[in-house]
Specification:
The chain is an alpha+beta fold. Helix content is 24%, strand content 30%. The strands form five sheets. The chain has a five-stranded antiparallel β-sheet, covered by helices on one side. Strands 10, 13, 14 and 15 form a four-stranded antiparallel β-sheet that branches. A hairpin with a 3-residue loop joins β3 (23-26) and β4 (30-35). The protein is globular, with a radius of gyration of 19 Å. The relative contact order is 0.13.
Length: 221
């Protein structure tokens, strides 16, 4: 059995050969292949989905760009959190260890925008157990990043969930969450993404133009 991929630079097709038929699991715009002797092979595709619908026209080379960005970030953050990546044998292929995930998506927010703003603008100040300060304006900085987790659904929509609900439903133990095995690492990952420790009052115009302003960072656990 074989899987084809297109080379980003040359536009030509390459093929990966498997000695035996592997097990497939698919998502809206990606595919995982279980490799008995290695772990997992990840194939992000050129498909794109919106609101749980796969759009009819793919984006050329989107899978390869996504794979290379993911590989860069995984390699850059290994000092904070060991991860699954082992090698990237082709532009849109990654091979890594098969791990047992926490079925949680960690949404770290530095700014009041998107879903947080929609919640706040109707008078609610708590989102996924996180308290949002009074008197904020849309896109304003939180005093410190807040974590607003969601479930990581295999099918359908992800759902908001609080730390208490995570523990109650067994998605993580109290020790795994409360001792900050999960939450603290994801704050550290967020701060590495924006390039400095998150202290809103120290942000300058230079930061605005020369650094990444990551209003929302979503990280599967």
């Amino acid at each position: 059995m074989s899987v084809a991929f297109r080379h980003l630079t040359f536009g030509s097709w390459r093929r990966i050969i498997f000695p035996t038929k592997p097990a497939f699991t698919g998502a809206k715009s990606e595919m995982f292949i279980a490799l008995a002797s290695i772990g997992l092979l990840w194939l992000p595709s050129d498909r794109i989905s919106a609101f749980d619908v796969i759009l009819p026209r793919p984006i050329p080379f989107k899978g390869q760009v996504l794979n290379q960005i993911a590989a860069y970030m995984l390699r850059s953050t290994q000092d904070i959190c060991p991860n699954w990546l082992m090698e990237v044998p082709a532009p849109n292929v990654s091979i890594g260890k098969k791990c047992k995930p926490f079925k949680i998506e960690m949404v770290v927010r530095g700014n009041l925008t998107g879903h947080a703003w929609r919640t706040y603008s109707v008078g609610k100040s708590v989102l996924c157990g996180a308290q949002m300060p009074e008197g904020m304006k849309e896109n304003g900085y939180f005093p410190s990043p807040i974590i607003t987790p969601s479930t990581k659904a295999i099918e359908g929509h992800d759902e908001d969930i609080s730390p208490d609900e995570i523990i109650k439903t067994g998605l993580a133990t109290a020790e795994e969450w409360e001792k900050k095995t999960i939450s603290q690492r994801y704050i550290e990952l967020y701060e590495k993404v924006i390039g400095k420790k998150f202290v809103p009052e120290t942000l300058t115009d230079e930061d605005t133009y020369q650094r990444i302003i990551s209003a929302i960072t979503k990280l599967p656990v």
